From TrEMBL:
<feature type="transmembrane region" description="Helical">
    <location>
        <begin position="150"/>
        <end position="171"/>
    </location>
</feature>
<comment type="similarity">
    <text>Belongs to the CDP-alcohol phosphatidyltransferase class-I family.</text>
</comment>
<keyword id="KW-0443">Lipid metabolism</keyword>
<comment type="pathway">
    <text>Phospholipid metabolism; phosphatidylglycerol biosynthesis; phosphatidylglycerol from CDP-diacylglycerol: step 1/2.</text>
</comment>
<keyword id="KW-0812">Transmembrane</keyword>
<dbReference type="GO" id="GO:0046474">
    <property type="term" value="P:glycerophospholipid biosynthetic process"/>
</dbReference>
<feature type="transmembrane region" description="Helical">
    <location>
        <begin position="114"/>
        <end position="138"/>
    </location>
</feature>
<dbReference type="GO" id="GO:0016020">
    <property type="term" value="C:membrane"/>
</dbReference>
<keyword id="KW-0594">Phospholipid biosynthesis</keyword>
<dbReference type="InterPro" id="IPR000462">
    <property type="entry name" value="CDP-OH_P_trans"/>
</dbReference>
<comment type="pathway">
    <text>Lipid metabolism.</text>
</comment>
<keyword id="KW-1208">Phospholipid metabolism</keyword>
<feature type="transmembrane region" description="Helical">
    <location>
        <begin position="68"/>
        <end position="93"/>
    </location>
</feature>
<dbReference type="InterPro" id="IPR043130">
    <property type="entry name" value="CDP-OH_PTrfase_TM_dom"/>
</dbReference>
<dbReference type="InterPro" id="IPR004570">
    <property type="entry name" value="Phosphatidylglycerol_P_synth"/>
</dbReference>
<keyword id="KW-0808">Transferase</keyword>
<dbReference type="Pfam" id="PF01066">
    <property type="entry name" value="CDP-OH_P_transf"/>
</dbReference>
Length: 176
């Protein structure tokens, strides 16, 4: 068990904590835990690369932790009305499509290599920033006239582009 893996496990543990805080209306605490979870994603990757602590376990666990955090946060924020429901649906649908494609390729004995794409990293970063923004609005009353709507469209566009890139790669893999 490496330090990056322990950080990733800690991020997984933070998921239900931040969800409960949102549901209880404890916005400042929810914001703080979410930001800590988001930063932990960068820290575990940095440590793994810098100190040669990469592991197969971590390579699989890290994206699971990312998806658990983002899917949970978007669904919960949509339930309480802090992000548009349509945006939560886009975020969740992309991840469901990716998981379904991976499972189908395994079932068909055509396992696909799971590699993060640049557009998916950009999409994830935008999703994290937008969720942090939505939490900050509730926690601190911050609001930038019209910014939230424009940012939601950018997040959706990046998420759809990421889904399209993964789908295209998967279709090429399955047709080969």
């Amino acid at each position: 068990m490496t330090i990056p893996n322990l950080i990733t496990i800690a991020r997984l543990i933070m998921v239900p904590i931040v969800i409960v805080m949102i549901l209880q209306g404890r916005w400042v605490a929810a914001f703080a835990v979410f930001v800590l979870a988001g930063l932990s994603d960068a820290v575990d990757g940095f440590i793994a690369r810098q100190f040669n602590m990469r592991s197969e376990f971590g390579a699989h666990l890290d994206p699971i932790a990312d998806k658990a955090l983002l899917v949970s946060i978007y669904v919960t924020l949509a339930i309480v009305g802090s992000v548009p429901a349509w945006l939560a649906i886009v975020v969740v649908a992309r991840d469901m499509m990716i998981v379904a494609a991976i499972m189908l390729s395994w079932v068909m004995s055509r396992p696909v290599e799971i590699k993060p794409l640049f557009i998916s990293k950009l999409s994830t970063a935008a999703q994290i920033c937008f969720a942090a923004f939505a939490l900050a609005v509730k926690a601190f009353g911050a609001d930038f006239e019209g910014f939230g709507d424009a940012a939601a469209v950018v997040v959706a566009a990046l998420t759809v582009a990421s889904a399209g890139a993964y789908l295209g790669g998967w279709l090429r893999h399955m047709a080969a």
